Amino acid sequence: MKALRLLPLLGAVLLLASCSTVRVASDYDKDTNFSDYKTFAFYKPGIDKAEISDLDKKRVLRAVEAQMLAKGFTKSSNPAVLVSIFTKAKERVDVYQNNFGFNGGWGWGGGFWGGPWGWNNGFNSNTVSRTTQGTLYIDLIDANKKQLIWQGQGTAPLVSGDVNKREERINLIVQEIMEVYPPQVAGN
């Protein structure tokens, strides 16, 4: 009986966890020796093209810088790696159809919830949920060769409103993306 009472709580926890999930992917040049890169700088021309507010750019860049420093990089005016970002956003629409009710008809399903026969005196409702999904791309470019060597991307619902929650969300997204850098190359 206790397990039945915990199901709604478990459902709520899973729903909240799924809302905060960041889907991460990365790609890289397999011929690159990532241990050769120790210094970085931001690639301003690329960052200027990112279609987010200047305040959010600052938040993203602070989060990226913190992650790069945590990985042992040093910020430099003569960097081995240039860091660029860009973003994409799209609206996600989810429609949930709820058909609840008591089936009072004859035959199979009579007296059960939502059976196939008879009338249904319950309620039918549709719920529409709209969220904006944002994707942040972080590019690492070999500064000498001017070639992309690694790209990480994170997709997650965007948070608006509260500045602290927005900054917290950006930090989480950047952290999740940078967790997959450097790539685990076979043989290393």
Features:
single chain, 6-stranded mixed β-sheet, 188 residues, 30% helix, 34% strand, alpha/beta, elongated, disordered N terminus, 4 helices, Double Stranded RNA Binding Domain
Describe it.
About 30% of the residues lie in helices and about 35% in strands. α3 crosses α4. The protein has a domain of about 120 residues: Double Stranded RNA Binding Domain (2-Layer Sandwich). It is elongated. A hairpin with a 4-residue loop joins β5 and β6. It is built from 4 helices and 6 strands, in the order αββααββββα. Strands 1-6-5-4-2-3 form a 6-stranded mixed sheet. The protein is an alpha/beta fold. The longest helix is centred in the N-terminal third of the chain and has 18 residues.
What's the quick description here?
The protein is α/β, with parallel strands linked by helices. The protein contains four helices and six strands, in the order H-E-E-H-H-E-E-E-E-H. It starts with a helix and ends in a 10-residue tail after the last helix.
Strand content: 25-35%
Helix content: 25-40%
Count of DSSP H/I helices: 4
> Termini, distance in Å?
51 Å
Overall mean pLDDT stands at 80
The outline comes out as elongated
Low-confidence stretches: 1-19, 107-115
Would you give the CATH topology of one domain? Double Stranded RNA Binding Domain
Reported CATH architecture of one domain: 2-Layer Sandwich
Provide the CATH top-level class of one domain.
Answer: Alpha Beta
Helix-strand category:
alpha/beta
Question: Can you count the beta strands?
Answer: 6
Strands across the major sheet, in which order? 1-6-5-4-2-3
What is Rg? 24 Å
Largest sheet: 6 strands, mixed
**Order of helical and strand elements:** HEEHHEEEEH
